[in-house]
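Please fill in the sequence for the structure shown.

STRUCTURE ENCODING:
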């Protein structure tokens, strides 16, 4: 079996995926392949992604992975779909493992049991969170996986941003990355674990500090329609007015002005992009945080969005668009190829992507592997039903160690701050520290 790791003096990463429906066989096969890729290197951190078909055996999944890989810490999160190498297993049994050997790196694992009240305005609470997650002067990244039904993520992420240390110039140290568990549509159905602690609510995570470089890209999956607008009246997640007019009226106007050929994109829903940096004169697609429009009220003329909003913010309506998503991801990956080849990657993509957005399977995972490996053969033809599959269908030394999952929300930075994203593909790359 060929290797998906890169033999370098810094981090070495192994990744594997299995479509085997029997849980123990799937976990042991994927863990075994990761062992082969790590070679003589010890596993420091193992991250396990498993579909809803395997959630009832989460405690055993953790036990088997720890037994075989012997990591310092082992994280796990349940998902609607998982990915490994150039393969995405959508809404079918799947287990994917990312195994990282990180020399001269410190890990500080945590669960939400140690979180203070999530109020970023309270300095004492921020300080408690910083201590709980292990924020340090040489932190590279904090990875967090949360249950969307029990953790107020829109409050947690800003607080995690504030919990980071700063350098002498006042810039925050380290990135906050991760995603929301997506295996369930109701509270109590998701499962996460940290080592031998299994949780159906809350969050698990780990802070990585020391001798590793972490880079991230955030690729949007939406295209802007209409013009930028300013919210002139809002409360909580309700927008009453846009540019001094009823928000519902403005929304209907934007939709009616779309070309007939464009309106097909509305079948995927209508979204609202909120500008991240209001000081920019012009806005590109990476300047918006995408949020779903979740309702409208004809009586009041208001629209509801899946976020807290306020008057004065600049927004623009968006629709899901496969071509835009493909182009955006390709451009971002091309930019990363100018740098040293990564040891491996963690891909958190939206559960609204995959074949729900693209006409071909394995779109995001295959694009990443094409960027950093050669001779990729993508497609589920490589994964016969019930068979073990792994990202090692390429010549030895050319495979790219990638694993991840389809999330109910993606956590990644834009500029110095991290946000909760939607319809995006968020890629984290691990490299040797320069």
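FILLED IN BY: designer on duty
SEQUENCE:
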């Amino acid at each position: 079996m060929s290797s998906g790791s890169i033999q370098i003096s810094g981090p070495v990463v192994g990744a594997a995926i299995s479509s085997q429906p029997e849980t123990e066989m799937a976990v042991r096969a994927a863990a075994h392949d990761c062992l082969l890729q790590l070679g003589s290197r010890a596993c420091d951190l193992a991250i396990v992604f498993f579909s809803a078909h395997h959630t009832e055996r989460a405690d055993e999944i953790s036990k088997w992975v720890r037994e075989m890989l012997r990591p310092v810490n082992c994280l796990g999160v349940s998902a609607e779909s998982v990915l490994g190498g150039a393969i995405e297993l959508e809404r079918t049994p799947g287990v994917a493992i990312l195994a990282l050997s990180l020399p001269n790196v410190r890990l500080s694992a945590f669960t939400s049991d140690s979180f203070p009240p999530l109020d970023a305005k309270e300095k004492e609470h921020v300080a408690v969170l910083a201590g709980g997650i292990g924020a340090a002067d040489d932190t590279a990244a904090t990875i967090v996986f949360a249950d969307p039904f029990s953790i107020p993520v829109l409050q947690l992420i800003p607080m995690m941003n504030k919990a980071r240390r700063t350098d002498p110039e006042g810039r925050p140290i380290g990135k906050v990355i991760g995603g929301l568990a997506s295996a369930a549509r109701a509270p109590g159905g998701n499962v996460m674990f940290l080592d031998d602690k299994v949780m159906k609510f809350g969050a698990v995570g780990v802070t990585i500090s020391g001798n590793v470089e972490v880079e991230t890209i955030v690729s949007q999956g939406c295209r802007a329609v209409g013009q930028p607008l300013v919210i002139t009246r809002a409360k909580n997640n309700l927008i009453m007015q846009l540019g001094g007019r009823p928000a519902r009226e403005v929304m209907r106007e934007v939709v009616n002005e779309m070309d007939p050929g464009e309106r097909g994109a509305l079948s995927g829903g209508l979204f609202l992009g909120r500008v991240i940096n209001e000081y920019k004169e012009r806005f590109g697609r990476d300047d918006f945080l995408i949020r779903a429009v979740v309702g409208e009220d004809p009586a009041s003329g208001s629209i509801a969005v899946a976020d807290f909003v306020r008057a004065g913010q600049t927004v623009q309506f968006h629709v899901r668009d496969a071509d835009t998503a493909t182009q955006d991801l390709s451009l971002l990956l091309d930019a990363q190829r100018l740098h040293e080849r990564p040891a491996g990657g963690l891909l958190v993509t939206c559960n609204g992507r995959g074949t729900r957005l693209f006409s071909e399977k394995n779109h995001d995972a295959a694009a990443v592997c094409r960027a950093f490996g050669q001779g990729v053969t993508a497609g589920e033809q490589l994964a016969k039903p019930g068979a073990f599959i792994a990202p090692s269908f390429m010549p030895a030394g050319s495979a790219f160690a990638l694993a991840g999952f389809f999330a109910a929300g993606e956590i990644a930075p834009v500029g110095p701050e991290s946000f909760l994203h939607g319809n995006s593909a968020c890629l984290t790359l691990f490299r040797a520290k320069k």
